[in-house]
From TrEMBL:
TM spans (from-to): none
Highest taxon of source: Eukaryota
Keyword Cytoplasm set for record: no
Region (Disordered): 1-77
Protein name per its UniProtKB record: Ribosomal S17-domain-containing protein
Matching InterPro entries: Ribosomal_eS17, Ribosomal_eS17_CS, Ribosomal_eS17_sf
Gene Ontology MF term list: structural constituent of ribosome
Amino acid sequence: MRKVDDTNVATPKFDSPYGERGNRLYSSPKPPRDLPSPSSFCILSNPRHIQQDGEPAANEPTDVFADDNSQGRVRTKTTKRASRVLIEKYYPRLTLDFHTNKRIIDEVAVVPSKRLRNKISGFTTHLMKRIQKGPVRGISFKLQEEERERKDNYVPEVSALDTSATGLEVDAETKELLHALNFDTIQVSVIQPAIPERAPRRERRNVPGAGR
């Protein structure tokens, strides 16, 4: 059988809009070079990721469904102002629990909608937690400041450290400790520590097969 030399056989060429790659058999057509890649659609579809010149920002995420951390924030002055007024007036009653503050606000205030009430309650709870760490701008605690001054200026009639009249009540071990530390000058009276009585033991019922 004679072998045919097909090296010099010319291959027919067809004009294809996709270039030379389109002439190959079973080859997928090459997309035009003007269209952007599919990955860039995710960036360009969100105007937040486009700069002034139309190019996507380099440091911005490509995921358009990524959370922008805007959920749960209070941006209206109505909610913030109402929360500050409530804290100034009803600070002793408010707590760090959202549901408790929600019921308190229902009692002391008139809020037109449940949604606004929940927003005020949430921001009030947030401010109460911040107050525990330090002062908050825009909130003056007149009641709290007066109570703090009253506690600082309080002088008891009989000092708790004055043991001249009654003396300290200690147990035997504490008296031995004071003697070992050379504090015999302190007047103490030894008392027996109260031992809590144990409740009477319940009788065990004789249940057949229970001890197995």
